[in-house]
Amino acid sequence: MPSVFLASRNPILFGCGVSKQTGEKLKEFGCKKVLVVHDKGVKEAGIVDKILGYIHKAGIETVCFDKVLPDPPDYICEEAGALGVAEKVDGVVAIGGGSSLDTGKAAKVLLTNPPPISRYYLKHEDLVPDESNMKPIIVIPTTAGTGSEATPGGVITDTKNNCKQNVPCATNLGIVDPELTLGLPQSVTVTTAVDALCHCVEAYTSKEANQISDVIAKEAISLIGRNLRKVIKDGSDLKAREGVQLAATLAGLSIMGPFCNIPHEIGLMLGMIFHLPHGIACGITLPEALQYLAPAIPDRIKTVAQLLGADIPENAGSEEIGQIAYTTVRNLYDDIGMPKLKDLVKSKEELAAAVPQIMDYSPFHFSARPVNAEDVLAILEKAYEA
Asked: How far apart are CA 201 and CA 195, in angstroms?
């Protein structure tokens, strides 16, 4: 087993009520005026004004950027960065779901590095942003799923090539306050929690999984298994909210080294083609992916299913393990109201037409079992029939 683990550069402050420390933490970074990045929904929920109050109480000025869009497009990131430059800010605070956090990360890069943001896509032929004089960023997630507070980069939409790109940018501090997820709509809770589940399951089933990532991933899977149904049943259950939020952060940490595999490799392009929420696009094939991987890594698939509450016979073979894992996740999805692929895409023919684009975009380097176009089609067709 490889022993490579990419330690996170992102310090994290976790716990109920910790968002009250936002202003003081900005003062510790020496900030006088910060760019606050958020979407209109978080503003309407009253969360932004609450955080602004903590910042202003510390004597720090703010300028707000509220034009964040889902799967943040490159031009929105550039607009946010340009506002920060024009206002001469010396820091960034990003509040919201993954799209807001990733927009904030991209804006941080552009405060001290010239646009366009495409110059800094994480590809060999592109530039690495100069970090020597970057301004600090604090990210404050209001959903429990993306784990962006734990990962050293932002995922944005390359509108020229209609695909997702990574921009390297670590956060200086993640402030993770489960209280901010109270009142989150059930649909958003489901979408983001399924994304978190994919992160930790994919880390644990990656061919690059290692001893450190295994410990983190298994705890994240267990937390979701114990708490997600409770959150869906009662959104005001703060203890369960805290469990899912901790799982999301741990899941983000767990992919640092193993990275993601089949569900995300399929889901990233699936979401782009059919305009699906990220967590839904990735999670929609998780049950099928586990069943597909069972012949290659039966013990790991067995562990995943058990952590999610399944009983598996001691002498079960890989086929039985795969079926139980599949059923376990499908039952979880039914209980939490996970959308079905057949309700999101018109036909199997549309899915088949998407396979070449998925294969062009996704190398499936981290899958514990080789994946070809026929395998992707079979996974999608089975998911469609579920």
From this structure: 10
Tell me the CATH number of domain 12-181, given options 3.30.420.130, 3.40.50.1970, 3.40.50.10860, 3.40.50.720.
3.40.50.1970
Would you say how long the chain is, in residues? 386
Taking residues 153-168, report their average pLDDT.
90
Q: Please give the structure tokens belonging to residue 325.
A: 């894992």
Nearest alpha carbon to residue 166 among 74, 249, 273: 74
Establish how many alpha carbons lie within 13 A of residue 301's alpha carbon, considering only the half-sphere containing its beta carbon. Answer: 30
Residue 157's beta-bridge partner residues? Answer: 73, 164
Q: Residue 174: beta bridge partners? A: 12, 139
Do 143 and 96 touch, CB atoms closer than 8 A? yes
DSSP string, 143-180: SSS--GGGSSEEEEEETTTTEEEEEE---SEEEE-GGG
Whole-model pTM over 0.85:
yes
CB atoms closer than 10 angstroms to residue 274 = 16
310 vs 324: CA distance, rounded Å: 7
pLDDT tens, 61-84?
A: 999 999 999 999 999 999 999 999
